[in-house]
Amino acid sequence: MDINVKILxxxxxxxxxxxxxxxxxxxxxxxxxxxxxxxxxxxxxxxIPTGLAISPETTGVVAIVAARSGLAIKQGICLSNGIxxxxxxxxxEICVGLHNTSRVPFTVNRGDRIAQMMFMPVYQAKLxxxxxxxxxxxxxxxxxxxxxx
Length: 149
Prior knowledge:
149 residues, mainly beta, Deoxyuridine 5'-Triphosphate Nucleotidohydrolase, Chain A, 3-stranded antiparallel sheet, 1 helix, 11 strands
């Protein structure tokens, strides 16, 4: 899958890359101004630019932005929207909404790895209005209805 990447000159960041041959996602880095930091207070959110814009060569792909597991588990830094969805026709700068769920301030420096981005195929569904739905053993049971074990 070919993805064109534009590195925004005003941000001056290097192109992202996969860390290892087996990496599923590329790390996104904070493209904040040189010599500045962004401090996210406990319970607060901040929108961090990455200095990147993308253009997939097909509409059948989506870029998914996810939290970095180390930041989430060790520092309490998660994505403010759970995951980020970058549609195939979006051409603006990719920014990451970070949420500090910890009890201490968290400082983001220029170049810090703040999130990860993976590419996945997209299937658009044809929605068909129906008066009723087929029956299943589960039915409308949700929110823990299948138990824990």
